Each structure stands twice: as structure tokens, then as C-alpha cells.
Amino acid sequence: MNIEIANRLVELRKKYGYSQEELAAKLGVSRQAVSKWERSESSPDTDNLIVLAKLYNVSLDSLLDTSEPIEETIERVEETQNVNVIDKENEDNKPIWLSTLYGLSMLVATIAYLLIGFISKDPLRWAVWWILYLIALVICSIPEAIYYKKASKFNMAVLCTAVFIYIGFYFTAWHPGWVVFLLIPVYHTFCGIFEHKKNQ
Question: What is the pLDDT of residues 129-169, one digit of tens each?
């Protein structure tokens, strides 16, 4: 979408006092979709454009009016289509390096687990150290969170589970060890607030 139209959508939404969530609810789309329209990363479909025009009491012509030359419009549409394909690939499929990282981390966790099991004198080695697989998942979620620029991709739930199991077995602190699970909703609440503010 043309940045001029995207800015117009922002102005009209604010003029009518809608938040992105409220507008998304009226249109039956996600807040992320509205955010992408307003950042000129994607365009509303025809049905949504009609609803937006009616909602803001403007004609489609005035909603979509732009001073951009036709050549630039065609070029921008082609670029947007390519970006949307890349975005879809990023969201639906992990990039090959990230999938490889997950596979290698599981292999390393397996080797480490077997070495600890056969070499260590720790009586709990087989019962506890399978948490290496959980730790590997947590470690891999760090570059994934960085790659997608979403803190919520960090695997806080798995980290809390690993910590709970460790302190439960080694310190017999199953209670109050369960308290670590309270970090999960707190973490994801802050992630949600941060990602919401970033997309506004």
C-alpha cells in the first residue's frame, strides 16, 4: 500500500477515535493486519476497503486518492507482493539455519545425556539430566526470538519446567518450587504489552 494512503488510514482511525484493536474487531481482522495496513506493509482487500470507506464516511476515491505516478504504483505493488511472500515463508516455515540449529542442539543434548548417564556417579543422572533436551529448546528459542523480533518466541515455559524439575530433584523443593511457573504469565504479559506498543 502507498504510504500516503497508509497515513490517511491512520489519520481517519484516530479522527474517529478507534484503537487498532477496535477497528480490527469491526472489520473482523487481526490487529496485526490493521497495523500492517498502517505501516504500508500490506493492503486491505476490496471488501475491507468498502467497509473502511463507509465507516469513515468517505468515498473510495478519496480514501484511495494518491499523487503517486502509475509506474511507481506498479513497482510498489510488485515489491509488496514479494515481501508478503517472504513474510509468509518466515512465519509459516523456520529458515533452514534455524531448523538445523534445532536439530544439532537435540543431537548435542542426546550425546551429553548419554555421556552424563554412563560417566557420572550422580545417582539421579538418568532421572534428571534429560532436562538437557529442554535446555536445548530454550537455547534455540533465543536466536528464534531475535530472528522474528518477538520476545514471545523465547521459550519461557520450557525454561520454567527445566528449573522446576532440577530444583525438585536436587533440593526436594517441589513445593514451593512450583512458584517458578508464575513467571510464564508475567513474562508473556510483558511481551504482549511490548509487542503491542511496538506495532502501534
Answer: 999 999 999 999 999 999 888 898 999 999 999 999 999 99
Could you give the CA distance from residue 193 to residue 191 in angstroms, rounded to a whole number? 5
Cα 132 off chain centre by: 25
Q: What is the pTM of this model?
A: 0.54
Q: Is the Cβ–Cβ distance between 56 and 14 less than 8 Å? A: no
pLDDT of res. 123: 92
Q: Where are the alpha helices (DSSP H) in the chain?
A: 3-15, 20-27, 31-38, 46-55, 60-64, 70-92, 96-119, 125-128, 131-148, 156-171, 174-177, 183-199
Residue type, 4: E
CB atoms within 10 A of CB 20: 20
- In 3D space, the residue among 48, 34, 41 whose CA is nearest the CA of residue 1 turns out to be 41
Instruction: Report the distance separating Cα 179 and Cα 166, nearest Å.
Output: 14
pLDDT at res. 89: 42
Where are the domains positioned within the chain?
3-92, 96-199
Confidence of residue 103 (pLDDT cuts 50, 70, 90): very high
CATH dotted code for 3-92 = 1.10.260.40
Of residues 139, 64, 143, 53, the one with CA closest to residue 98: 143
> Following CA atoms 61, 64, 65, 69 in sequence, which dihedral angle do they give, to the nearest 10 degrees?
-130
